[in-house]
Write a structure and sequence with these properties.
This protein is α/β, with parallel strands linked by helices. About 40% of the residues lie in helices and about 25% in strands.
């Protein structure tokens, strides 16, 4: 897994590449924990290059979501492929997370909030 970081429209975007599973979720957890400690006001995770996520990856995202709520941070996900999206739907996280079909759509929504 690789994470590329950029800032656009006052939103921090983390583009993730690779699979998110038990072996790499600690790296993602560390990256997201740093963003929570910095109280990043708007964070977008771009999943365009993520082919798989398991329950440890989902738990990592839930942990960040809960941390961000404590400082009113906005958090979104974009560009989930069908397989990854079905993992979110299976556990009903599509009802919790803001999920967008494209990065421009997500940036517009997060920047406006």
């Amino acid at each position: 897994m690789e994470i590329t970081e950029k800032s656009e429209k006052n939103v921090l975007v983390l583009a993730i590449q690779g699979e998110i599973d038990l072996h790499v979720s600690p790296s993602l957890r560390a990256a997201l924990k740093a963003k929570a400690q910095a109280k990043t006001p708007r964070l977008l995770l771009n999943f365009a290059e993520v082919g798989y996520i398991d329950s440890s990856g989902l738990a990592t995202l839930i942990e960040y979501y809960q941390s961000a709520r404590s400082f009113q941070g906005k958090f979104g996900l974009c560009c989930l492929n069908l397989s990854v999206r079905s993992s979110f739907e299976l556990v009903r996280l599509t009802e919790v997370f803001s999920i967008f079909s494209s990065e421009p759509e997500a940036l517009q929504a997060l920047a406006a909030s």
